[in-house]
Each structure stands twice: as structure tokens, then as C-alpha cells.
Amino acid sequence: MNIHEYQAKALLKSYGAPVADGVAILTKDEVDAAVAKLPGPLYVVKSQIHAGGRGKGKFKELGPDAKGGVRLAKSADEVKAFVDEMLGNTLVTKQTGPAGKQVNRLYIEDGADIDRELYCSLLVDRTVGRVAFVVSTEGGMDIETVAEETPEKIVTVAIDPDTGVTASDVKTLCEALKLEGDAAKDAERLFPILYKAFVEKDMSLLEINPLIVMENGRLRVLDAKCSFDGNALFRHDDVRALRDTTEEDAKEIEASKYDLAYVALDGNIGCMVNGAGLAMATMDIIKLYGAEPANFLDVGGGASKEKVTAAFKIITADPAVKGILVNIFGGIMRCDVIAEGVIAAVKEVGLKVPLVVRLEGTNVELGKKIINESGLNVISADDLDDAAQKIVSAVKEA
């Protein structure tokens, strides 16, 4: 689960991290009160969407020459002008795709005099099985670009869970970021704070880009991105309360109600598969034959008829889907249950696109019999390769 920047900053501030004063607003009527709470005369107006690259993004409604989704204002009047332009409009960044995301929240923050911009993140390093800091002197840039062009400028420090962040870890991080004086003293306090927040709140990612050294030599968290392990949210009611469903795909929200593993993609062939590995293989082979999957959908190993029906309805609700591939290898999952679920869903929502079904495993003959006797216009497949070729061909011919 992701949260907004202002929510992430509030969380980090509660742990003692150095964060600027700021106020989130949902309507234009809240601007005056928000500005009055900040010292000024420098303000930053930030679009709050679950996507990176906001500063370099463009608003669809404002034209190519308009400023991006993060703007520096030098007066209260300029703040108001920016809010008028940004709130309610659609921001397009590299991470949103061409459709963009509507900006429903803005964060107005106290400005900062920046000397240097640094990069700092925490994540689970699966190569060593530990939480690790990833830092770089190249803050404010896409870390992927830094990794590709100047990988020597990225330093990774894995933290021993038995000791937490040690003085030696802090020294290594400070040397990597070239922190001295007051900035180094702030870092001695900040790095353990970040690690504690990451572990206690079951985060999967904590990214601060940039972490800045101000002209007065002190550190400040200028931007913050937090992602949380969805499997651990039952332990954190305070984190769950921060969820903004308007930032999530409606189909993914519906899928979560049925405990379906669903991720919307940009293609036009809907996939319903059991098992994450088989789902990945199914998407790969669809791409191999020149098409693109519209989703990742794993119904799991013990899905019921109702769960399968819900999965099929979610797929067909996507207007981008021009064909559907059902690929089931029945171990725990029975092929007849899949067949009954598909039929129930088709009868309820109709079938307007080609449907290819490949069944194999437990009760496969019964499953095929149910499909064949249903009267549905279903294309049968013998194996995965055959299924992929048939659905790609059917979509191209439709």
C-alpha cells in the first residue's frame, strides 16, 4: 500500500525526522488558512498523487509550456495562482502513463534554502536477507538513471537486525554522502530513526529523494515516499487509515475484496490463471506472440466458484480487454470449479470478446465437458503455447 508524500512526512516527523512545516489541502477554499500557518515568504506547492516525477510532469489541461506538479512560490498570491491551476487537473508523469492522474490534494510546504541534494532509501535487500540503506550524492535524480550512468555513486549498506543501525553504519553512510559538521550530527540521529520507522511500520520501501543539506548545514527530509507490506497491514490500523482509494485502480480494489492477486496492465488480452509463476509464464508467452497482457490475475490454488466468477467479471469490466485467456493447471484447484465459475460469470455479464480456455489437471475432463456443453462460444486449447497463439490470433481477427 502506498501513501501520499504529506502522510509519509507526518509519519516520519512523529519518529523525530527533520521535516518542514506543511499543510495539505483538498479544496481551494483552504488556501488562505494553509498559507497563514506557514512562515513564508517562500512556499512549495506540491501535487499529491501516487507517482514519481511530479516536478517534471505536465498538466493535460494547461499545455506543454505550463509548470510541473511541484512549484516554488514566492508569495501567498503566487500560491493561490498555482493552486487554481493544479487542483483538480490531470498531471502526466513518466510513472502515470499518458492517462495521467487527477490531482485531488495539494501540499503547501515551507520553502528551504538548498545547498546539496542527496538520495536515501531503505528497502529489503533480498540478496542478503536484510533491510538496507541505498544512498547517493546524486539526489533529485531518478535513481535508475544514476545506477545506469554512474553506478559507483550508489552505496548500499545492509543493516544487521540484531544490532540495528550502528555507529559504523552511520560513518559509512556519512562518508558515502559526504556529510560533515552539523549535517553529520543530524545524520547520526536520522538514520536510526528511518530504520526504526521502516521496521516498526512494516514498510517495503522508504525513499527520501531528495534528502537535502540546507545552506545552514542542517539536514531535512524534502520528499518522502512510503510503501507498506500489504500482508502486515492488519497490525497497523493507523497506516490503513491513510489509504487513498482514489489513487488506486478500481479493478484492483474490487479484486482485493475477493483476495485475488490482480494488477492492471496496459495490454488488451485479459488473463485468468492459477499460480503466480504460471501467470507470469502466461503473460510472457502472450508477449512472445506479439500481443500484450491486460492484467496479472492469480485466482490462487483453492478458489471457489464465486471467486472465479468475481475474477472473470473484473477482467470483462476492463474496456481495454479485447480477448480473454483462461489458463488453469489444476492441482489443488479443480478444473470443474473453474469451468463453473467461467460459465456463471459469462451468463451474468455476457461475453463480447473471444475466450480461449486451457484446462489441465484435476477433473480436467469434467471441466472440459462442462465448458463444451455450456453452449458458450469458447475456443478450446490443448496446451499453453496453443492457447496463446489462439487468443492472439482471435484478437487480431476480431
UniProtKB/TrEMBL annotation:
<keyword id="KW-0816">Tricarboxylic acid cycle</keyword>
<dbReference type="InterPro" id="IPR013650">
    <property type="entry name" value="ATP-grasp_succ-CoA_synth-type"/>
</dbReference>
<comment type="similarity">
    <text>Belongs to the succinate/malate CoA ligase beta subunit family.</text>
</comment>
<comment type="subunit">
    <text>Heterotetramer of two alpha and two beta subunits.</text>
</comment>
<keyword id="KW-0460">Magnesium</keyword>
<dbReference type="Pfam" id="PF08442">
    <property type="entry name" value="ATP-grasp_2"/>
</dbReference>
<feature type="binding site">
    <location>
        <position position="46"/>
    </location>
    <ligand>
        <name>ATP</name>
    </ligand>
</feature>
<feature type="binding site">
    <location>
        <position position="112"/>
    </location>
    <ligand>
        <name>ATP</name>
    </ligand>
</feature>
<feature type="binding site">
    <location>
        <position position="274"/>
    </location>
    <ligand>
        <name>substrate</name>
    </ligand>
</feature>
<dbReference type="GO" id="GO:0004775">
    <property type="term" value="F:succinate-CoA ligase (ADP-forming) activity"/>
</dbReference>
<feature type="binding site">
    <location>
        <position position="209"/>
    </location>
    <ligand>
        <name>Mg(2+)</name>
    </ligand>
</feature>
<feature type="binding site">
    <location>
        <position position="223"/>
    </location>
    <ligand>
        <name>Mg(2+)</name>
    </ligand>
</feature>
<keyword id="KW-0067">ATP-binding</keyword>
<comment type="pathway">
    <text>One-carbon metabolism; formaldehyde assimilation via serine pathway.</text>
</comment>
<dbReference type="GO" id="GO:0050074">
    <property type="term" value="F:malate-CoA ligase activity"/>
</dbReference>
<protein>
    <recommendedName>
        <fullName>Succinate--CoA ligase [ADP-forming] subunit beta</fullName>
        <ecNumber>6.2.1.5</ecNumber>
    </recommendedName>
</protein>
<dbReference type="Pfam" id="PF00549">
    <property type="entry name" value="Ligase_CoA"/>
</dbReference>
<keyword id="KW-0547">Nucleotide-binding</keyword>
<dbReference type="InterPro" id="IPR005811">
    <property type="entry name" value="SUCC_ACL_C"/>
</dbReference>
<dbReference type="InterPro" id="IPR011761">
    <property type="entry name" value="ATP-grasp"/>
</dbReference>
<feature type="binding site">
    <location>
        <begin position="53"/>
        <end position="55"/>
    </location>
    <ligand>
        <name>ATP</name>
    </ligand>
</feature>
<feature type="domain" description="ATP-grasp">
    <location>
        <begin position="9"/>
        <end position="55"/>
    </location>
</feature>
<dbReference type="GO" id="GO:0000287">
    <property type="term" value="F:magnesium ion binding"/>
</dbReference>
<dbReference type="GO" id="GO:0005524">
    <property type="term" value="F:ATP binding"/>
</dbReference>
<dbReference type="GO" id="GO:0006104">
    <property type="term" value="P:succinyl-CoA metabolic process"/>
</dbReference>
<dbReference type="InterPro" id="IPR017866">
    <property type="entry name" value="Succ-CoA_synthase_bsu_CS"/>
</dbReference>
<dbReference type="GO" id="GO:0006099">
    <property type="term" value="P:tricarboxylic acid cycle"/>
</dbReference>
<keyword id="KW-0436">Ligase</keyword>
<comment type="function">
    <text>Succinyl-CoA synthetase functions in the citric acid cycle (TCA), coupling the hydrolysis of succinyl-CoA to the synthesis of either ATP or GTP and thus represents the only step of substrate-level phosphorylation in the TCA. The beta subunit provides nucleotide specificity of the enzyme and binds the substrate succinate, while the binding sites for coenzyme A and phosphate are found in the alpha subunit.</text>
</comment>
<dbReference type="InterPro" id="IPR016102">
    <property type="entry name" value="Succinyl-CoA_synth-like"/>
</dbReference>
<dbReference type="InterPro" id="IPR005809">
    <property type="entry name" value="Succ_CoA_ligase-like_bsu"/>
</dbReference>
<feature type="binding site">
    <location>
        <position position="109"/>
    </location>
    <ligand>
        <name>ATP</name>
    </ligand>
</feature>
<dbReference type="InterPro" id="IPR013815">
    <property type="entry name" value="ATP_grasp_subdomain_1"/>
</dbReference>
<keyword id="KW-0479">Metal-binding</keyword>
<dbReference type="GO" id="GO:0042709">
    <property type="term" value="C:succinate-CoA ligase complex"/>
</dbReference>
<comment type="pathway">
    <text>Carbohydrate metabolism; tricarboxylic acid cycle; succinate from succinyl-CoA (ligase route): step 1/1.</text>
</comment>
<dbReference type="GO" id="GO:0004776">
    <property type="term" value="F:succinate-CoA ligase (GDP-forming) activity"/>
</dbReference>
<dbReference type="GO" id="GO:0005829">
    <property type="term" value="C:cytosol"/>
</dbReference>
<feature type="binding site">
    <location>
        <position position="117"/>
    </location>
    <ligand>
        <name>ATP</name>
    </ligand>
</feature>
<feature type="binding site">
    <location>
        <begin position="331"/>
        <end position="333"/>
    </location>
    <ligand>
        <name>substrate</name>
    </ligand>
</feature>
